[in-house]
Amino acid sequence: MVSGGGRNWRLVRADTDAVPSSVRRFMARARQRRLRAALPWAVGLGVLGVAGLLTWMVYGTSVLGVRDVRIEGTGVLTPLQVQEAAAVPMRKPLARVDVDAVRARVERLAPVDRAVVSRSWPATLVVKVIERQPVAAVPDGKEFRLIDAEGVAYRTVSRRPDGLPVAQLAAPGEGDLNTRSALTVLAALTPQLRTQLMSISVTGPARIWGDDTASVRKAKVATALLSQKGDTIDVSAPDVVTIR
Questions:
Q1: Model pTM?
Q2: Amino acid 113: pLDDT
Q3: 71 close to 129: Cβ distance less than 8 angstroms
Q4: Is residue 212 part of a domain?
Q5: How many structural domains is the chain composed of?
Q6: What residues make up the domain containing 47?
Q7: 215 near 208, Cβ under 8 Å?
Q8: Together in a domain, 162 and 220
Q9: Is 11 a residue whose pLDDT tops 70?
Q10: Are residues 115 and 155 in the same domain?
């Protein structure tokens, strides 16, 4: 109640019925418009908040950190050797692991031809190795150096593996001409020749059944003549073969 000028005034709240219905409808529509206008912002802020939280969990915490490094494909190597070469810190956020760097480190291991590194959520890093496969054994004193189809000498063993031909090479390696010639001939051999081959000697690119050109044809000609009498089949000139 307010007193002023000798008169008493009472402040009361008008009943809603005192507001015209058209005004009430206008005000209601205005509120709805404000709510509709604010809704996308509220949703957007909510989405950003959730995305930020998830990003922080994935990249900034150990919630989705590495708990296991799974090694696949080993034969010559042990899983522990590969895991040590991978050098992946446990509990490091899986999303932040540099898979290319891990792959490069694993591929430095001599027996590894290539490696594939992938993430397996929520907490496992998978390292699959493809090891080199020997195609020949090169004598090295009392031991043998194994070389693959690319000429990489990647392992030394005390005895020649069964079924693996001996390659007499002075300096086995990817850049050695004699090594490449020997590998070309070995790759061209037919199954029949391969099972009978014990040793291949290359003292020069032109000192292996003439040279390494037309090796597939020379191998087929030699295979066709295996049943002939003689100890030596000379296919250096496959059109004029001699048997001694």
A1: 0.71
A2: 97
A3: yes
A4: yes
A5: 3
A6: 20-60
A7: no
A8: yes
A9: no
A10: no
